């Protein structure tokens, strides 16, 4: 079987998009960064940097899942 390199257009700003959407849905739900941090078991500094740095830091899929549950938002919405 022959294999070859396929071309894909990966979004280079996906972490920024996720970061902005976390902030968007957090605000829509009326939840503070402090409350979100407490609910997902992370530090306030982590949630602050996650939003403020706009993608310069990332988070694990486990953390993103917890955020989606707390914000009552489907996880795919963070990628839009």
Commentary on this structure:
It is a single chain. Helix 2 (33-40) packs across helix 3 (44-52). The mean pLDDT is 92. The chain has one domain: 434 Repressor (Amino-terminal Domain), CATH 1.10.260.40. It is elongated and about 50 Å long. The protein has helices at 14-28, 33-40, 44-52, 61-70. It is mainly α.
Task: Write a compact overview of the structure shown.
The chain has 80 residues and is mainly alpha-helical.
Which keywords apply here?
80 residues; mainly alpha; 434 Repressor (Amino-terminal Domain)
Task: List unreliable stretches of 5+ residues.
Answer: none
CATH level-4 homologous superfamily: lambda repressor-like DNA-binding domains
> Based on DSSP secondary structure assignment, what is the total number of beta strands?
0
The CATH architecture would be Orthogonal Bundle
The biggest sheet, with number of strands, parallel, antiparallel or mixed sense and barrel status, is: none
SSE arrangement:
Blueprint (H helix, E strand, L loop, with lengths): L13 H15 L4 H8 L3 H9 L8 H10 L10
């Amino acid at each position: 079987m022959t294999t070859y390199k396929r071309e894909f257009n990966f979004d280079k700003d996906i972490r920024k998009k996720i970061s902005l959407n976390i902030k968007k849905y957090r605000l829509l739900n009326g939840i503070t960064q402090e409350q979100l941090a407490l609910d997902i078991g992370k530090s306030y500094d982590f949630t602050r940097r996650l939003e403020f740095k706009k993608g310069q830091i990332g988070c694990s899929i486990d953390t993103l899942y917890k955020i989606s549950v707390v914000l009552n938002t489907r996880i795919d919405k963070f990628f839009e």
